[in-house]
Amino acid sequence: MKPEQVEETENSPQVAGDVIGDTAYSERFVLKILLKLANLDTLKEEIKEKAFEDDVCILWDMTAERDVVLFLQKHDVLKLFNFALPVIEMPRIIEIIVGIIGNMCCQKEVVNVLMKMDNLLTILIEYINTDDSLVLVQLLRLVSACLFLASEEELAIWMDLFVTVEYSSALYFILKNSSHKVLLVTALENLNTLCSYCNTDKFRTKFFTHFIVPEALDSLISAFTEITVNQKEGCIKDELERILVVSLQIALNLVGFDKSQEIYSHSTESVVTMVNVILKYYEDKLVINKEIDSDLVCIVDSTNTIVKALEITSAPDKYFDLSYSIWKASSSIIKSDQNGSSFEENDKEELKEFVAKVKPSLATLICNYLSTCTDDNLLKVLDDIGTDYEDIISWVKDKELLSIVRNRATNYRTRLKDNVDS
């Protein structure tokens, strides 16, 4: 369905003056909709008509154009929505209007006006408690758009709103219980935006109090699992990789507080499962598909931080085996593998640069495992590593970690020698 556009008619001078800015969209078409929204006496009946839904849906599409947004602002459309939304009960119309406001909030001028409209902000933010998935999608997009353009003063307003409506509880409930893929993806993006713009020095205490709660990590991982495991076949490659990266970024923010280990002590197994899924994906990409992905460096660095912050211990197959597999692939990345395939078609300098960046991170992750695993698992993984041990520890820059690993490995070798001698 396309917005009404100017057509050639007999009174072309009048029609030519009907266009909005540099677009081909009609001012009269928009004004007709605004008049209907302004007439609260007839609005309840008007919204039941399919034609009205079609028209506001067209307007929604039109708001992708800046000139249309500015035209709507000129006619105080936010004030109209402020009066109209309380009398509208149809979820579809609410979805469209929230979507229109969300599109408009891609423009800084609109965000500035909206942030001064306390009543409309309250109406909008309270939709976080609706059970309509499509309304939630548009609300989350609107909030993310506003946070992206918000000043510090405006961020303070949002933080107060989040606390007032218990936004984190509603958001974590969505992440934990929904199976609606678009909603889950949008909710993850929203949480990532919250972490990026609200977990700052000025708001860190309030962010910790409101968002760093025991259910946060479990909710994140529930959504992550639903998308990347249960609905993996419905994800295109770029979308899936975005979810992998965003989920790790969120986890990184959630575990970045002094009390995170205590708060999330019950979630470590779930976190390891998420790490396993992510590393397995990038192992397949590198080892099987021979694809170099620079994101892998950040992925491994983030995993290191999370593993250390939560003091995670696990069986080797959770993350050690994958880390070591990626290590071996990166060690022979310029050479042909045993099947004759190679990375030769890539630029060799670029490959060397990649290896130089990823190896320290991988070595640290492997050594983090060696430093905390059980004695039985230590024996197993040191056997697996074999002659690669010295090469691996040579890339580790953390002297304290290096000392712990060397001491454990020395004890292992001493016991092994004693057993052989006896």
From TrEMBL:
Predominant cellular place of this UniProt entry's protein: nucleus
Subcellular location: Nucleus
Domain of life (superkingdom): Eukaryota
Cellular component, GO annotation: nucleoplasm
Transmembrane segments: none
Protein name: Protein SAAL1
Xref: InterPro entries: Synovial_Prolif_Regulator (IPR052464)
Family membership noted in the UniProt record: Belongs to the SAAL1 family.
Keyword Endoplasmic reticulum: no
UniProt entry keywords in alphabetical sequence: Nucleus
